[in-house]
Every structure is written in C-alpha cells, then in structure tokens.
Amino acid sequence: MKKTLLVLLALVLAFGAIGLAGCGSEEPAEEPEATETEEEVVELPAGVQAIADTGKLRVGVKADVPNFGLQDAATGEFEGMEIDLAYALAERMGLSAEDVTFEAVTAKTRGPLLDNGQLDVVIATFTIKPERLEQWNFSDPYYQDEVGLLVKKDSGIESLADLDGKVVGVAQGATSKDAVLAEATAAGITVEFLEFATYPEINAALESGRVDAFSVDKSILSGYVTEDSVILPDGFSPQDYGIASKLGTDELRDFINEMLAEMEENGEMDALLEKWGLS
To answer: Are 51 and 57 within 8 A, CB to CB?
Structure first.
C-alpha cells in the first residue's frame, strides 16, 4: 500500500513540474493591432488657417446672375457655379457647406467689402484687370468670357454698328462700359450709357425701351434672354474671372490657385462647368 502511495505521489509531482515548466515557457501575448488609424491632419498655411479657425468662410457672390450666382427669392438660398466653388474652397479648409456665409455683392460693392474686412473672398464674375491687381489679390482664372450685347428682336439692331446714337445699359463699376466704348470708338460710332445697380434693372430698362441694349459678359446675358430678345454675334474684350481677396493675402491666393489647378487636373472643374451649362 505504501509503495502504491509513493508511486502516485511521484506521478503527481512529476506532472506538476511539467505544468510549471510549460507555463514558464509561454511567450507574452501580443497586443492586438489597432484597427483604427488616426485621420490625416492637413497643415494649412497660416493665412488660411486663420480663416479656418473662425469656423466661417465669408464669401461675396452675385445674387442675380443665373448659372454663376443666383439667390432664390423665396428661400434665400444661393446656387450656381461660383457657389459650388465656394463650397469646394471651404472643404479644402476643413470647413463644411454650412460654414460658408454668402453675401450678395454687385460690381460696385464687392471691392469695398473686401477692403473693410467684411469678406474673406469674392467669387462673383470678378474680371482680372491690371488696375484691379493693384487693389486686390486675384487667383488664376477659372473662367473666360467676352463682353456682348442683348437687344430686343424687333429693334432692328443686328450688330454693334447699328448702335450709333443709341443708349446702352451697363452695371455700375463694371468694365463693360469701357469695352463697349472702345469698340464703338474703333468703329467710328457714338453711343450713350446708362448705369444701373443690378442686372435685373438693366434688363427691365431694355424691356421698357429705356435703353436700346444691355451689355455685360455673354454668359451673364444668356440668363436674361427671352423669346423677345437676342444676343448679338458681336463679342469683344475677353474677360478672365478670378477669385479675389484682400491685397496682401498671398497665402490665401496661393492656396486657392492650388485648388483651381487640382480641379482642372482631376476633371472637377469640367464637371462643374457642365453642371451649370457653361462648358
């Protein structure tokens, strides 16, 4: 009996030793790999980061230009190619569409609103001109157009030459007046001008007979064509549109230029122009 007990005890001790040895040889368990990765943080230039830190992008846009910037009278919402450009800029700053604040501007008010700091950028069919480059920063062009003339079909006016002694309606502060005047002088004709604050006012003046022609860039005129009016074939003074910012905001201008170049390269700009019938 004693012998049997001793054998059993020996076996228990032997198996215990083996178990301890096995436990001692186990390697530490590996920590599970992280399944989530941190989001890539894009470092913005200081001048751009300053805008992003406010949580708002303040943009001056047109409210009366179909396909570029048009405000719905009922809802107050803006839509158009330049509105989508503002959203694209906000996204690249790390902001959302809800963070974009739009303010309706005219050719006369957009510059002063930049100067006094009420707006960060203006995307409002703002043509790039040498004299304007001395007042504001401009991005590279994102659209090119030319000045045209809208007339009534029954006016008998078929070309610029037929405007001799006629009245042309133009927007206050726009370059259309200078373009038409230069073409009229070169053609040896004389035209008079009436200036208005908004495009709808010019169009109303055309319909009422107060002016004989409505002049602005052709893409803008296309939004005012009716069954009773027509855009003349004449076109002059090519106009490059750029995104404007306050003079000295070079980091912001360069950031915008990088965005525009990227949009051109990846086809985003072409899609945007096609969406709004501007291609």
So the answer is: yes
The overall longest dimension of the chain from CA atoms, in Å, is 137
Tell me the C-alpha distance between 186 and 14, whole Å. Answer: 114
In this structure, what is the dihedral angle of CA atoms 75, 81, 85, 91, given to the nearest 10 degrees?
60
| Dist CA 168 CA 62 (whole Å) | 22
Q: What is the mean pLDDT of residues 38-52?
A: 83
Label the pairing between strands 64-65 and 143-152.
unpaired
| pLDDT above 50 (res 40) | yes
Angle at CA of residue 199, ends 245 and 231, nearest 5°: 110
Per 3-state DSSP, what percentage of the chain is helix, strand, and coil (rounded to 5)? 45, 20, 35
Residues 240, 146 contacting (CB under 8 angstroms):
no
Question: What's the mean pLDDT in 56-68?
Answer: 96
Q: pTM of the full predicted structure?
A: 0.79
In terms of DSSP bridges, do strands 143-152 and 78-79 run parallel, antiparallel, or are they unpaired? unpaired
- The token duo for 197 is 């604050």
Buried-state track 144-177, b at ≥16 Cβ within 10 A, e below 16: ebebbbbbbeebebeebebbeebbbbbbebbbbb
Cα separation values, 20 from 6, 9, 14, 15, Å: 21, 17, 10, 9
